[in-house]
Amino acid sequence: MLQLQSSECILPKPGSTGDDACAHLIIDNAVLVSVLCDGVGSARRGGTAARQCVKFFTDQFKTRPKAWDIPKTMEVFTRHINSLLFKESMAQYGEIELLTTLCLAVIEGETLYTLNLGDSRIYLLRRDGSFERLSTDHTMDDAYMSHVLIQACGLSENVDCSIVSTPIAVGETLILCSDGLTNLIDDPSFSDLVIKGLGATMIVNHAASNACPEDRDDISLQIFRIESLDPLYGMKNISLPIPESLLEGEVIDGYMLIAPMMEHRRIWKVSKENRFYVMKFPMEANDEQSLDAFVREAWTVKQITHKAFGHAWVPENRSMRYYLMELIEGVNLTEYLKNRPISVDSAIALGKFLHRAEAHLLHLGLVHGDIKPENIIVTKKEGEAGVDFKMVDFGSIVEIFSTNSRAGTPSYLAPERFTGGVINESTEIFSIGVTLYWALSGKLPYGEIEPFQTPTFKTAKRPARLNSNIPLWLDSVILRAIAIDPNERYRHYSEFFYELKAPEKVKPFFSKETPLIERSPLTFYKIGFFILLALEAGTFVLYVSK
Asked: pTM to 2 decimals?
């Protein structure tokens, strides 16, 4: 979601209602549209042109065609309002009287788009303190004619629209202002005031105090301090077609489709320059929900950089909606362990691998959401014996503490996931534990759970009873990981990982449902002894009393 602190101020010159106008709006909590216009004072209706121009942009951006990207929208709208002002001037006055400067700034995703006509300015204060001017003054080069505009909105029937795109980040500040401000204050002083956190009104009043009231112009200023951005919105609204069907041999951006990798034919093995990759498309061509899910997934893959995951990327110059992944040569864990359990050493390595993968996601505020053997690829180590692992299925990754409790595969979900509980480290550890339990024993601790079933969880058998090679410390680690009660389970990945690498620190684990004879045989037999002793004593007393 786009969040920002905004302030704006217009201070007319003394004795005037002013010819400046400005406004901004935020669309869908994701797109900022800001427009500032300085009506040219020498034109009889400069102020009218400024106000008309601001209203046009704020009205039209609300209903812009979805197929238009931001640069096209800015260009089309600018040309349209310019033509309207010019033609109205000619029709009513026979000369240019509806004339205004224009600053237009739009933030979509992580990109700032800017356009200006005239000598109003756009600045960007970077996080490192640098103060960049993103606009160009369209005035005559002659020092004595520098006040004469060579471009403005309504000046001629056609206009040259130069749109600049600039990466923008949280913590940066966008500024739009009229020349009434920049004529009174130089850039270094202006920058210092913005860095100090002063609002638009204070800066405008400060600048006005340094000028003779009779000599100064209207002053207008907008300031936007960026607190958060919405990168997903920008990715979603890129105008890219989604193919309805895909065929073997088809070439897309130089990648040849070799063969579909799933029955739905939306994931393909592709080749380019004798190298193989995986290309993934949205599941549906004309479905908003499918597009939302795909965009979120594509955004996620751009954040993930750990080697536990296959490398994935979104090409910059795509002609269609897709993203690419490296092709991982191997088989999933289910296929790899067909008819045989994993070795204890490999199971420990698998547990540590899953911890590293999840720890990286946690750093990004994410969790995998669907840990299971089918989403773990087993690969051969390069140049040595043994195997490595890779995590796949970016589509299941969600933000930590999400409440999408049915996301994932039922047999690997923690009990609280079936009752609306959030996805967190503890629920992910449960899935890791179930995966290790299955890999070492060939059994699921709580049996096969069908989709949309709300299961009843009963105490699982100790995995060491199903595989005698499992050491007691690892048996306890797995049982704690799959504990039905979250209070008995590991809460954090670090706790789980610590015990995996320090077997001597692991304490025997018994759930509260475990029978006493298993939890403490000595205590059980002591209690039994004293019960028998008491019974014998009672019998003796009855015998004596007779």
From this structure: 0.65
